[in-house]
Design brief:
It is built from 11 helices and 11 strands. With 320 residues, it is an alpha+beta fold. The chain has 4 domains: 64 residues, Orthogonal Bundle (Arc Repressor Mutant, subunit A), CATH 1.10.10.10; 49 residues; 84 residues, SH3 type barrels; 81 residues, Malonyl-CoA ACP transacylase, ACP-binding (Alpha-Beta Plaits, 2-Layer Sandwich), CATH 3.30.70. A hairpin with a 5-residue loop joins strand 9 and strand 10. Helix 4 runs antiparallel to helix 5 and helix 4 crosses helix 6.
Length: 320
Amino acid sequence: MEDERGTTERVLTLLGLLQQRQVWTGPELAARLGVTPRTVRRDVERLRTLGYQVHASQGVGGGYQLGPGQDLPPLLLDDDEAIATAVSLLAGAGGEVAGAGEAAVRALTKLDRVLPTRLRHEVRALSGSVESFGGGRTPVDSDVLMALARACRDEVEAGFDYPSGDEVRRRRVEPYRLVASDRRWYLLAYDLDRDDWRSFRVDRMTEVAARTWHFHPREAPDAASYVQESVASRVYRYQARFLLHASAETVRAQLPASAAVVRERDSETCEVLSGAGSLDFVLMHVVLLGHPFEALDPPELRDRCRVLADRLLSASTEVS
């Protein structure tokens, strides 16, 4: 009887070979695996049983070829490929491609499950050599990002030191999602000491550690929407709401996501929610967008419109 472990290792090796090159002939695979062409054919059938589409063609230029599946199949990576993939994902986590940051962190957490310990220090050393220019997000420690991603994935509590006013306090949270804005990384988490949802800037965290206590996930707000509203409005003294006579698509192209929340009303109007330490400041930003608008909230915002209008009219009057 054929050794089951030896068969499994050989089939995995065959899969790795098929992922390396587009077409292999039967004799080539047999030579690489040290078996007969008949054994290669049996191993190909084993892969097909597992859901891999392995095509076989006859004649000149024919051979075995791994085709696309209905689902993404597992990839076999050697040490160098695993290191390169992890470093690329770490770089992508801080990139500027829409959605790439979140996808990179999700992929990293999956790779983290299977990455051998002997490779971790190499990944860490190489990721430290990756730099970027031309803006991008505020840099964060890749170890911190991974620790939080693991805690979200494994549903375990996390703790970290975080500035609050003039002091730094220890926070205990149930981490839910990492969210990337156009400028920074944030963690949406349930704050156990304040008994409420909070968003935290990852670059402000220190002494980050996952705990061993598991939690049952609560009903959570939409992570991206919650963090965007926190960043654009809730953290400021004043929250202003406007009705703009322009499409949401047009206004979103003018405003960074971290500066305002834009909600579509219809094809020609939208609401803009933004915060600032001064109503005059946020009002002038909306004026400079160049669209007709109405001040909705707070009530004193309309008073500031009249005051600024009088100032502008006065400034336009010729001095005799």
